[in-house]
Amino acid sequence: MKLEIVPLLISLIPSLFLTLLALYYFKLHTDNEEKRRRYLLHKEHQKQSLPLRLQAYERMALFLERISPGKLLLRTAPVGEDKKEYESLLINMIEQEFDHNLTQQIYISDECWNMVRAAKNGTIALVRKNSLKEDITSANKMREAILTTVLEKGAPSDDALTAIKSEVEDLF
To answer: Rounded to two decimals, what is the model's pTM?
Structure first.
């Protein structure tokens, strides 16, 4: 009886080997198909999200240009001579612009978003700092002091704008 089982087992070895080999190649094939499907899905997703991301970068660049002190001061003239009132007006304008573009953070990188926030906060700090100077007594003098500071040191939004341009270049 033992002798009959041994030839049977020996004859089963090639079929067992072929079965394992077939399972291995089937697994390779299904893995490759899964990777291909994921790649195609990712490619399709990128094709759909790229216009949204570009639009977000465009809006953030526009936001940074609009809060750039030189352009902000040209667009927003003082209503009276009170420097505190003008400070409040400028800060409200910056905050409104920021709130209007708040949702764009979904489409841009965290690093870039942090730079945009830093530019906004830097611009507000620039306005507040010049408003606190005792030698500045009117809104027009404050306006001149802010412009002088920007000409000497540059706008707080310049670095963030450079970062946005760099990220857009990386998309292509």
So the answer is: 0.70
